[in-house]
């Protein structure tokens, strides 16, 4: 006899359970591609799909799903469907397909589910092991490539800022077009400039609205791709492209806010006319992108990137249910705040990435979807690329490559200052996964520490060479 329903994660699916609904899907389903459509129509024949659109949430038959639809959940799965009854090893397969959480009836065997697929990049690597040394050799080559792309990334970032400025200026004259941004996105992706651009965002800060859009979108795309990759998926060029475009255009509605309000140094009161206009950039943005015929997910990002988990908060707008906020938008709202912290504003200086991560962790649950925040932090690393850290030997080093997720405090670093406070010209690359005795003791504010010129920290970072 059927028991009461309950909600389980993919790895808690046990043989004998009956799946009635899929309550959470991975990011891929935020904009359906042909492959996902085919899979859904085959696996969930007869079920109902819950979609998020520009005009709210609606339910359609799975057979009616279309390209670029944003799927939120799947209901009314027939017990006779081949996917309904859980069999051995199905949890891992479900996770691979991006089906993450389920409403099930019948408890199934009490034995824990068999994990047939690793959940992250593979088995955990022990610190100081032979496997750690092997990993370091591979990563060293990646660091070299990354350093070689720095100059190009600097000019790509400048070019991007100009393109965003142009897009907003044209918008002020009622001429909206995504052509410039789309062309630029192609170039950035062709050059593979996004990882270095992400590091530069944290090392140089920036006080322009345009750089906010550039940096935010690069960080959004990098995290999104990382999250998909961890789920065992290989993000297509189209996926990278739409994440970048969604980021570049998230504040397009600001083109309808008068420049003197946008650039004002005044702090407006929450109910002032100026603040109301500022907040409207989200609804303006959604309308502009709908008129341009952009995909649903891009519109959702522009419309809802200021909606908080607690929708009653004064800082949460527009007033909609959190259920309407797509996963990519939830990630975008975190990236938006993160960039605001590491970027400069007229009323505050830039935070360093490591401090911004610490701050975001405190907001978990009240402002951000806790699960997405965890994915963001896993993707950025506890010490993001370009962070300046003090090691237990009292030397200072820049983070050059992320740590494995299960040892988040052990990235690959390049030592730039010795224990006597002397700048080094020969930089040693150290992998804290290999150097078992070394630890990070603190995050150092690179702007404060290297303050000779505004770009001193960045120039030192750029000069690092790996033998
Ligand atoms: Fe915004
Ligand atoms: Fe923004």
Characterize the structure shown.
- This protein is α+β, with helices and mostly antiparallel strands and 467 residues long.
- Among the domains are: 6-105, no CATH class; 156-380, Orthogonal Bundle (Hypothetical protein af1432), CATH 1.10.3210.10.
- Helix content is 42%, strand content 14%.
- The protein is built from 17 helices and eleven strands.
- It has a five-stranded antiparallel beta sheet. Strands 1-6-2 form a three-stranded antiparallel beta sheet, with helices on one face. It has a three-stranded antiparallel beta sheet with strand order 4-3-5.
- A hairpin with a 4-residue loop joins strand 7 (388-391) and strand 8 (396-401).
- Helix 8 packs parallel to helix 12.
- The longest helix is centred in the middle third of the chain and has 23 residues, at 150-172.
- 42% of the residues are buried.
- Residues 110-121 have low confidence and may be disordered.
- The structure holds fe (ii) ion (2 copies).
- Residues 212, 216, 250-251, 336 line the site of one fe (ii) ion (FE2).
| Estimated share of beta-strand residues | 5-15%
Rg: 23 Å
* Helix/strand structural class: alpha+beta
Give a quick account of the main beta sheet: strands, pairing sense, barrel closure: 5 strands, antiparallel
The percent of residues in helical segments reads 40-55%
Query: Segments where pLDDT lies below 50 for 5+ residues?
Result: 110-121
Based on CA inertia axes, which overall geometry fits?
globular
For CATH, the homologous superfamily of the domain at 156-380 is named as Hypothetical protein af1432
Helices and strands, in order, run as: EEHEEEHEHHHHHHHHHHHHHEEEEEHH
SS element count, helices: 17
Bound molecule types = fe (ii) ion
């Amino acid at each position: 006899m059927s028991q009461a329903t309950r909600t389980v994660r993919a790895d808690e699916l046990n043989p004998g359970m009956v799946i009635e609904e899929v309550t959470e899907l991975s990011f891929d389903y935020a904009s359906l591609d042909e492959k996902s459509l085919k899979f859904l129509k085959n696996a969930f024949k007869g079920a109902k799909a819950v979609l998020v659109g520009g005009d709210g949430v609606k339910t359609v038959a799975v057979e009616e799903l279309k390209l670029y639809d944003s799927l939120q959940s799947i209901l009314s799965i027939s017990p006779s469907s081949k996917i309904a009854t859980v069999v051995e090893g199905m949890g891992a397969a479900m996770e691979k397909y991006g089906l993450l959480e389920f409403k099930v009836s019948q408890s199934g065997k009490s034995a824990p589910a068999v994990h047939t697929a690793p959940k992250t990049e593979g088995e955990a690597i022990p610190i100081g092991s032979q496997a750690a040394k092997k990993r370091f050799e591979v990563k060293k080559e990646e660091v070299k490539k990354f350093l070689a792309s720095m100059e190009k990334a600097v000019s790509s970032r400048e070019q991007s800022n100009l393109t965003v400025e142009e897009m907003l200026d044209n918008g002020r004259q009622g001429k909206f077009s995504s052509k410039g941004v789309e062309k630029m996105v192609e170039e950035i992706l062709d050059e593979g400039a996004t990882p270095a651009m992400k590091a530069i965002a944290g090392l140089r800060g920036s006080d322009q609205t345009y750089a906010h859009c550039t940096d935010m979108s690069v960080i959004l795309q990098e995290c999104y791709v990382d999250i998909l990759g961890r789920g065992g998926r290989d993000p297509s060029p189209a996926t990278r492209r739409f994440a970048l475009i969604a980021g570049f255009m998230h504040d397009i509605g600001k083109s309808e806010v008068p420049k003197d309000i946008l650039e004002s140094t005044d702090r407006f009161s929450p109910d002032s006319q100026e603040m109301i206009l500022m907040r409207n950039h989200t609804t303006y943005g959604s309308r502009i992108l709908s008129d341009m015929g952009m995909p649903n997910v891009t519109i959702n990002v522009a419309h809802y990137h200021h909606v908080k988990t607690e929708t009653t908060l004064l800082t949460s707008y527009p007033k909609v249910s959190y259920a309407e906020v797509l996963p990519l938008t939830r990630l975008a709202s975190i990236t938006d705040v993160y960039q605001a912290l590491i970027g400069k504003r007229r009323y505050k200086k830039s935070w360093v990435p490591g401090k911004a991560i610490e701050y975001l962790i405190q907001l978990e649950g009240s402002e951000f979807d806790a699960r997405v925040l965890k994915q963001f932090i896993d993707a950025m690393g506890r010490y993001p690329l370009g962070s300046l850290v003090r090691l237990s030997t009292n030397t200072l080093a820049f983070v050059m490559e992320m740590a494995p997720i299960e040892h988040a405090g052990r990235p690959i670093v390049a030592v730039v200052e010795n224990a006597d406070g002397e700048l080094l010209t020969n930089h040693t690359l150290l992998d804290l996964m290999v150097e078992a005795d070394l630890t990070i003791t603190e995050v150092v504010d690179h702007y404060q520490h290297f303050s000779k010129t505004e770009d001193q920290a960045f120039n030192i970072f750029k000069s690092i060479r790996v033998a």
